[in-house]
# Entry
Amino acid sequence: MTQSITTKNGPLLILTPNCVVELHKLLSENYLLFHGMEPISPSGIKNNNMLESAVYRQQTGIDKYYKYDTIYKNCASLAYGIIKNHAFHNGNKRTGLLSIIKHLHSNGYVLNPNLKNGELYDLIVSIARDDLFGHAKRYTPEYKNIENSKKDIDELIEYIAYWIKKNSMPKSLYIGQFLKINTLKNILKNKNILYSEEGRHIVLTEKKAKKIFGILTYDEKVIKRKKYLIGKRKEKIKKSILDRIRKDFNLTRSDGVDNVAFYDDKNIMDEEIKKYKSIIYRLSKT
# Structure
């Protein structure tokens, strides 16, 4: 779904046309996630040439000398192209937003969780309405390069890149290094793993489970028992210990555990989409 290119600044993952189409399908087909949203109707590609033009803008250049050679510039070029090219019948602004989230996510970044929804919504709408000059005045008055470049696409993309850089952060910082013990307990409970404490240790026990009249019970057969040293204060648990727990008990996302803190970056994209659902809804009305 993504493609790797090598720029003078190092490797960079870019979105492919198929990836962007999948993001568009997510908007038009995921009824449960976007319940109540103005439907994308008709959905699908209106102009494939315009879609490819928008997506391949990321690869403008020769050899390693790409025009948009940073994560932020490349992401900005993609978002601008998708929103402005109108390659889809409907939902171009929403697809552009998801493309920003996906592009950043693929390259190890997320939008800052403290970012105000109104500012992000205004960015997408300002791109569509050719009002990035106004957006800069409202939110980034320190950025002066855009003042005389309202119609210069490269300068507009430079501004979007500046804004994205200012309002994004590495996934590693977003996730943090600890998980609350109560969150861990709930995850383990859902996987039928018993939690207990012994001094400075926590003990996890997996027993053979069965249901009697719909009630989950355990027999005495222990399948696996592991002990982990975490210290006196059992409020948080380090990611290094979580890594061991995942390996010891073979816990993967395919097992049905869906927690961004527990699984590092494996489902941040889902969490991000949920976080910005209100903006996606507003864009459906714009």
About this structure: Residues 178-255 form one domain. The chain has two domains: 2-174+268-284, 178-255. Residues 254-266 have pLDDT under 50 and may be disordered. The first helix runs from residue 17 to 29.
